[in-house]
Amino acid sequence: MENAEENEAGEVLVKPKILTASERLAAKKRFRTQRRLSTMKNKVLRNAQWATLKKEKRKIKKEGQKQRKKEAEALGDKAPPKQVPRTIENTREADVTTVDQEDEEVTFDITHDEYEAYFSKTYEPKILITSSDNPHSYKNIIKEFTTHRPEVILNNFQTRLGQAVSRMLASLFHYDPQFKGRRAVTFHNQRDYIFFRHHRYEFKSQKRAALRELGPRFTLRLKWLQKGTFDTIEGDYEWIIAGKRHEMETSRRRFFL
């Protein structure tokens, strides 16, 4: 294989690719084009040149991907690991309260919290979720709303606080979903924002399912968590960030849920 050699230990080493004279010339040409575009005053010509430049970049990127895939297939098990992009989520700061589902202490706390009676199905919840007092003029925000009890999906709640919030959100719905309605309610936590989505699903085959969003959709942000009945004056706050956001959010990569 090109750009590869075998050392004394029998390992296959991939050498860095050396650009040819034509490739170096093409790279210099693209750089000069970018500098020229920044000073070009004609908007139509500038957009056309920029589109051509982007097309060339995509072509070069695709060729590089094909080459890397071909090299990985040739190396087999000795191929270098796939590169994972760095995101805010996978580089988040370590949290000492991150939950390990196999931890006995965590299991004990979960089985003895305020929602254990609900999850053990000792009583049937009686909760009514309504809209605000000021109705909207639009009538068709929610499509084909039925009385079937939905399934509840909770995603990416990793800390002790996140577990408490997720169990509280789950207890808003009946613990026994009616699968005949094919409805699913999702609470997805991402960067401490909780996204709510409501879908109806239909299995087209054994491997594929069609989704149709019914609505409504909204986003939640936790400001405080209070123990017991609601009391903003003398209530017992388990966690609060309101008024202390700048003190607690010391980094873009620090999350609490």
TrEMBL record:
InterPro entries from the UniProt entry: Brix, IMP4/RPF1
- SUPFAM superfamilies found in the cross-reference section: Class II aaRS ABD-related (SSF52954)
**Basic and acidic residues: which segments have biased composition?**
62-80
Where does the record place a coiled coil?
none
User: What SMART domains does the record tag this protein with?
Assistant: Brix
**MF GO annotations:** rRNA primary transcript binding
> Which residues span the membrane?
none
PROSITE patterns per UniProt: BRIX
Region span, Disordered: 55-90
Any GO BP: rRNA processing
> Residues in domain Brix?
16-231
Query: What is the name attached to this protein's record?
Result: EOG090X09U6
